[in-house]
Amino acid sequence: MDERARNVGHAFDTSDMDHDGYLDHRDIIVVATSLCERLGLSDQGSRLVRNAYERVWRYAVRHIGTDSHGRISRESYIDYALAPERDRTEFVANVVWPITNALWDALDADGDERLDRAEYLRLWAAYDVAAEASRESYDRLRGKKVAHVSKAGFAQAMYDYYYRSAAAAPILGDGWISPRSGPC
């Protein structure tokens, strides 16, 4: 399996809450609720995240399709995300970014479109990412001259995670999923 397929599969796995190799609407509800609880989000923040997961689910059902049980398989998700004819920007804009953006907005308490180290580590701790991997990712994303990660830099890193090699993708690399993978 190529590196990009592995990364897309890892992202899928974070929402496959019953670990059956399929996403269904129940997985989406459970992952959104669990993530909001783990992060201790406000009602407004929780609403943002839940709405984002619902929006992504509706898009995925329409564009990836489901089996006769209303489920999206891991294989279908990976094939859709990496199809050479697919507009990658469309996939990221409709599947990756809505959830990432909602989480960002819920965690960016002061609305400055930057995450400091504590906010960034809190996000990845909710996904059971090892603290060391999160710290390394934060340091790579922020660079040497600033004390935060920008929203634009984070968006680019998420795109790179899906579509570039691990060396070019500073967002957690192999640290993305722990053996006890949680919600994403």
Overview of the molecule:
- This protein has 184 residues and is mainly alpha-helical.
- The chain has one domain (3-169): Recoverin, domain 1 (Orthogonal Bundle), CATH 1.10.238.10.
- It has helices at residues 3-13, 25-39, 43-63, 74-82, 88-107, 117-125, 131-142, 151-163, and strands spanning 22-23, 72-73, 114-115, 149-150.
- The strands form two sheets. The protein has a two-stranded antiparallel sheet. A two-stranded antiparallel ribbon has the order 3-4.
- The longest helix has 21 residues, at 43-63.
- The protein is globular.
- The model is unreliable at 175-184 (pLDDT under 50).
Brief overview:
The protein contains eight helices and four strands. The chain is mainly alpha-helical. The strands form two sheets. It has a two-stranded antiparallel ribbon. A two-stranded antiparallel ribbon has the order 3-4.
Keywords for this entry:
184 residues; mainly alpha; 60% helix; 8 helices; two-stranded antiparallel sheet; globular; Recoverin, domain 1; 4 strands; 4% strand; two-stranded antiparallel ribbon; disordered C terminus
What layout of secondary structure does this protein have?
Blueprint: H1 3-13, E1 22-23, H2 25-39, H3 43-63, E2 72-73, H4 74-82, H5 88-107, E3 114-115, H6 117-125, H7 131-142, E4 149-150, H8 151-163
Antiparallel strand pairs: 1-2, 3-4
Helix pairs in contact: 1-4, 2-3, 3-5, 5-8, 6-7
Number of extended strands:
4
Measured as a percent range, the helix fraction is: 55-70%
Overall pLDDT: 84
Read across the widest sheet, the strand sequence of neighbours is 1-2
| Morphology | globular
CATH hierarchy, class: Mainly Alpha
What is the string of SSEs from the N terminus onward? HEHHEHHEHHEH
Strand content: under 5%
CATH topology: Recoverin, domain 1
Tell me the span between the first and last alpha carbons.
22 Å
Radius of gyration in whole Å, from Cα?
A: 15 Å
Q: Give me the number of helical elements.
A: 8
Structural class: mainly alpha
Domain module tally: 1
CATH superfamily: EF-hand
Protein name: EF-hand domain-containing protein
Domain EF-hand: 3-38
